[in-house]
Amino acid sequence: MSVTRRLVVRRSGGQVSERGLFAHSRSPRSGCRHRLEDHLRGSAALARAFAERFGAGDVAEYLALVHDVGKGCCAWQNRLIFHAEPTGKPVGIPHKEAGTVLAARTVGRQLAAVVQGHHGGLPDQKKIKDVLAELRGAGVDADRVREATEAVARVVPEILREDRISPPAWLAGLGSPQRQALALDVFTRIVFSCVVDADYLDTEAHFADREPRTGARANMGMLLKRFEQRRLRLLARRTASPVDELRERVYAQALAAATGAPGMYLLHVPTGGAKTIAAGGFALRHAVEHGLGRVVFAVPYISITEQNAEVYRGLLDPAPDSGEQPVVLEHHSSVELDEEDGAGAWARMAAENWDAPVVVTTTVQLFQSLFARKPSVMRKLHRLAGSVIVLDEVQALPDRLLIPILSVLRDLVEHFGASVVLMSATQPSFWSLAQMDGLPRHSMIEDVTGLFEELRRVEYDWRLGRDVTWESIAQEIASEGGEQVLTIVNTTRDSARLHRLLSSTEGEARVTAPVWHLSTRMTAEHRREVIKRVRGELAAGRPVHVVSTSLIEAGVDVDFPRVYRAWAPAEALQQAAGRCNRDGRLERGTVVVFRPVDGGEPKDVSYRMALQASEEFFGPGRSDPDDLDALSCYYEKRWALLGADGRFMGEGIEVLRRDWDFPAVAAEFQMIDSKYAQSVVVVRPGASDAERDLIESDIALLRAPFPSGPEPLRGLQPHMATLPRHEVAEALLVGFAEVVIGDLVVWRGVYDPVRGLEAEAPEDRGVYVL
After folding, report:
1. pLDDT tens figures, 301-355
2. Do the strands 16-17 and 9-10 form a parallel or antiparallel pair, or are they unpaired?
3. Hey, CA dihedral for 635, 641, 645, 651, is it positive or negative?
4. What own/partner pairs with CB < 8 Å and gap ≥ 24 does 236-241 have?
């Protein structure tokens, strides 16, 4: 990719002389300021390359070309040189308006939001109207816009165009105005992503004194060949299992389906059917067949992200001594980095942009980005165009957001060259909803019902009476003696409570076997260590007990003979059963479903409706959660209980999207309760001096006054846990935590070596999380 080089004139003695307009202060490496014309043209070249994948190269190029035109006025230039540069403080003069005027004139008012929002976030249309109306009159701001435009036009004359640039023709051909409005919402978001990513990359390159970092297009053919060779070696090393033949059949059918046309695919396979490997083979072969450039795997829980990333790294990453760049990028940290202006403005550059052939992320990260408005969160979106997007465990998508999620997925398939794989053992009946009506679906598996019958490996035992309590369940689990037992509960508070009962040195419920704990209050590295240790104990046949939140039940590869699951919606019960007799070595494993009268349940409306529908179809005298016909009826009943108007399934967000009200959409679309969404970096007790130094070094890079790129956040991911915001606020007040950047904090308080960051808040402040 060609990018215009910066112009530097050197005098004798090594002194640097620069003339003209500048976009950024001096680079600490070269000592040169960033010429404005270089920044505009460099950003434009990058944005065009990104957007050409979906036919919007002209639009994105022009928007990037004009995004910083407002920096051309004298007031901004003077503040940069005489205030910002010597003090390290922001310039403090708005610079978005000139580009907004030019964008509205050339590409239309709707897309002018891209320029107006390239720092603070996409605005609503009223904001654009108000800005344009104000700048048509007299006043300081209007004068600055005219002055800046004239000054920049002398060095970048192509910002002034007589003709208009039209969006792709498919937008106008959608027929229904409502359908067109929704598609334009997605189009605006992805063009915005192209522009802000280009802006960030070009800016970062200036301060690092090198060309912008953009990865070469992946050789998917080579990756597919490497994947298959290593898969065969992996299978040869594994202990044989009674279900191996069935798993190989699933893989073969998935690979055969990959030759089909791009579109929406279903991978409906029972738990333990090796979906992860099958999805990887499908995605790579499908990318080879159709020239797609990236594979994005999205899963609901960080624990599966960690596990799947490890699997795919083993199958795809180059040898450590090869000198090649890694293939697989693991991304699950959710840190708020955006500021309108301020001392931490450079922190935005640390945001992830998914410039890797294979990305393993969370569904929260994926969909929060698609419905956000802030640049650092959205800079990666353009990577979805022309990609294979694999959504693992789609049953975990929240009902309250299902309508907008399915609507956007459909647009990515129909207009942005993506193929989407919906993967689950408990596949929801999405095609009964209007958002999927008329969209072709391709099933990878020939006989789903027969496959489920072959893979029945458990029986269910029910404990739903009024006499069931945490103490009674703890006593029952303790009575298992030397057994290997997994217990899955609904909240972090319940998991900590049960773990204390089972591991206490007093009382009847204590077990003699090791009792492990898993929740998102533990760091990613800590959880990974526990899961590895538990797998080792299971493989050796030693007794082991695990108490976990639901993060373990969907996709985590563990195999217990006995599983306890707190009462939850039917799909969660079936997913929990997938951790029981997973390899089919027993005639039947046992899944005990219990409902403690003193247990916690979310107050969410859609969750209550899911429980109500579950009670109708599943339990003693009714169906087991493995019954596909009952599951299909369950989903339809569950959605019917939420109402035909879609009010509890996100239809209100669709109304806001049709109005292009980006701030309101971002406020309404929350995959996780915003009260429980703050990342915390932890230096665990027992960490080596080298580990501590690496963590503190990454923190220092993020706090530095120059862009760091995404590497420090990638390095900190293994050391992050998640807490409710109110707990973080309290910790900051008493000195148990310190701010790093944005809403990321580093923990300086107590970290329990077993349960991590324990909750100490009163019972009525419990938050229902993973």
Report:
1. 777 787 888 899 999 999 888 888 899 988 876 666 655 444 445 555 556 889 9
2. antiparallel
3. negative
4. 241/583, 241/584, 241/585
Mean of pLDDT over the chain: 88
- C-alpha span between 396 and 655 (Å, rounded): 24
pLDDT level of residue 123 (50, 70, 90 thresholds): very high
Q: What share of the chain is helix, strand, coil (3-state, %, to 5)?
A: 50, 15, 35
- pLDDT 10s digits, 235-266: 988 888 888 999 999 999 999 999 999 999 99
Neighbours of 636 (CB within 10 A): 15
What is the DSSP code string of 697-732? HHHHHHHSSS---SHHHHHHGGGEEEE-HHHHHHHH
Largest pairwise CA distance in the chain: 91
User: Starting at the edge strand that comes first in sequence, how are the strands of the sheet with 328-331 ordered?
Assistant: 328-331, 358-362, 294-299, 387-392, 419-424, 264-268, 441-443
**CA–CA separation, 628 vs 570, rounded Å?**
11
**Mean pLDDT of the 156-163 span:** 96
Beta-bridge mates of residue 681: 720, 746
So what's the pLDDT on residue 676?
Answer: 65
- Rounded to whole angstroms, the Cα distance separating 757 from 527 reads 13
Cα atoms in the 13 Å half-sphere on the side-chain side of 586? 14
pLDDT, residue 13, reads 29
| pLDDT score of 374 | 93
- Give the separation between CA 392 and CA 276, rounded to whole angstroms: 8
Residue 638 to residue 643: CA distance in whole angstroms: 9
Contact 433, 402 (CB under 8 A): yes
SS3 327: coil
Q: Contact at 8 Å (CB) between 473 and 564?
A: yes
* Joined tokens for residue 290: 């159709």
3-class DSSP assignment, residue 750: coil
The predicted pLDDT at position 509 comes to 59
- CA–CA dist 346, 732 (Å, integer): 23
Token pair, residue 216, equals 């070469």
Residue type, 684: R
Q: How is residue 342 written in tokens?
A: 């301020």
Higher pLDDT, 388 or 454: 388
3-state secondary structure of 286: helix
Q: Which residue has the higher pLDDT, 400 or 346?
A: 400
**Exposed, middle or buried by CB within 10 Å (0-12, 13-18, 19+), for 443?**
middle
Residues sharing a CB contact under 8 Å with residue 225, sequence separation 6 or more, in sequence order? none
Q: Name the residue among 713, 24, 39 with its Cα closest to residue 350.
A: 713
Determine phi and psi for 592, rounding to 5 degrees. -100, 115
Q: Quote the pLDDT of residue 304.
A: 78
Are 61 and 134 contacting, i.e. CB atoms less than 8 angstroms apart?
A: no
pLDDT of residue 312: 94
Q: Is the pLDDT of residue 490 over 80?
A: yes
Strands, E, within 585-707: which ranges? 589-594, 678-682
Instruction: Render pLDDT for 497-515 as a digit per residue (tens, 0 to 9).
Output: 999 999 875 556 567 778 9
